[in-house]
Write a structure and sequence with these properties.
Elements: H1 2-19, E1 32-36, E2 44-51, E3 54-60, E4 63-69, E5 78-84, E6 88-89, H2 93-100, E7 112-128, E8 131-144, E9 147-160, E10 174-184, E11 204-214
Antiparallel strand pairs: 1-4, 1-11, 2-3, 2-11, 3-6, 4-5, 5-7, 7-8, 8-9, 9-10, 10-11
């Protein structure tokens, strides 16, 4: 019986280690729901096209979404981010009209771009100037132009537990997320005007996000 109890105890310990997630020390565990909020900070998307004949930098400021996060088990983080195509701008109105037209993003038929995050991996927790920070890979499904593909983004999460100082900005725990990833236009069946992709529009678009949320 003692031998059996020892084996059972070791098995339980091993199982516990297996299911334990990566987390922030000193923060109460438990899943929280966070919603993007411009009260916490200005949510925005920046996209860059680098082609031989032209470099284009644009942004989108109509960003919404929410996610579930447990500060003691970051691997289980999941959620959804939605960007309005109508809010995308490159600072040249005529070019923006072309970008949103049926030749390119087809805003009328596909008004939103969505990234559904399913989990985090390769997590490294850091302490940056006293702030709880995690660097990780976010895996999920990215939907653009009516096409859905698997996508992995590099992200950095900064977590601020609720305090007297954070309450001055917004209630609940606060989170900021910076992410970057690449989008290959051909993967999403975006051909554009003949001859432009690869010459004046990059075949791959670099995307950077800055997101803020509270629980």
């Amino acid at each position: 019986m003692k031998k059996f109890a020892l084996i059972l105890s070791l098995t339980t310990m091993m199982y516990g280690v297996a299911i334990a997630g990566t987390g922030f020390s000193g923060v109460t565990s438990g899943q929280r729901t966070f919603k993007l909020s411009n009260t916490v900070g200005a949510n925005s998307i920046v996209f860059n096209s680098d082609a031989p004949l032209e470099k284009i930098k644009g942004s989108a400021d109509k960003v919404s979404g929410q996610f579930k996060l447990d500060p003691s088990n970051l691997e289980a983080t999941s959620g959804s981010l939605e960007v309005s195509v109508a809010s995308m701008s490159t600072a040249i109105s005529k070019r923006d009209e072309h970008m949103r037209s049926s030749t390119w993003l087809d805003e009328e038929k596909y008004p939103t771009i969505v990234f559904e995050v399913q989990n985090l991996s390769d997590i490294r927790v850091e302490n940056r100037n006293g702030r709880l920070t995690a660097v990780a890979k976010a895996a999920g499904k990215f939907t653009l132009h009516g096409v859905t593909k698997a996508l992995v983004a590099d992200i950095t999460i900064t977590y601020l537990p609720e305090s007297a100082d954070t309450k001055k900005r917004a209630s609940g725990d606060l989170v900021s997320i910076k992410a970057n990833f690449d989008v290959a236009l051909k993967d999403f069946q975006i051909a554009g005007k003949s001859g432009l992709v690869g010459s004046k529009v990059g075949e791959v678009i670099q995307v950077e996000t800055t997101l803020f949320a509270n629980s």
